[in-house]
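Would you mind giving me a polypeptide sequence along with per-residue structure tokens?
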Amino acid sequence: MFTGKIRPGRAGRLQLSAISTKALNACRLYGIVDLSYVEKSDAARVAEAMIKGGVDLIQLRGKEQSIDELVDVAADLRELTARSRTPLIVNDHAEVASKVPVEGVHVGQDDDSIEVARRKAARAVVVGKSTHSLEQARAAQREGADYIGFGPIFATPTKPDYQPIGLKDIKQAHLDVNLPIFCIGGIKIDNLKQVIAAGARRVAIVSGLLKASDIAAYAREAKRLLLDLKPHISTINHS
């Protein structure tokens, strides 16, 4: 259980610096450990498989969990992600970042403002914001976001209240916003090429990764497509 004190980073020191702009720009594949799909006891295994598959960023999302529960899970995940230097982001609850040295916080349209999230974290962290239209994307940049999520591109059970925005605005979003943009929402291996062709450079994948029979292999295939590398023989389940 969490002791109530901020956890140390590598070499026993607190890691108070956020991800560099260069490192964030280099990220292509964003994996989300969503506790509505994954048991808390299985979160570390899932995160480890994502890391083995080359996921560049990992987010912990727990809509139904308490702050204390999220702190405990985040602390366990941070031990894994620190070893691989994979940034860990916590969804919604910036208070977690004041207790566990995660690298960032992600907020939605109805959550804390970016300014409030930074204040609650009480240290330097990356803050990303979900956006669902071109105007929201532009507004997030003006508000000071470090990156944005843009979607849902396709229908998704993780965002049942939002109509999918489709592919048409992806290219324009990249013209309007000078931030890393992660397209999200219903993106899977089977439609990833369409998303890339529409102008996406980065994506976040939720259920496609979490429901794959081999998470690491699924991540490797998604990363290959994002980096436009030559395919290799794979037996991954595209479910």
Remarks:
- The chain has one domain: 22-227.
- The CA atoms of residues 75 and 100 lie 6 Å apart.
- Residues 1-17, 230-236 have pLDDT under 50 and may be disordered.
- The first strand starts at residue 29 and ends at 34.
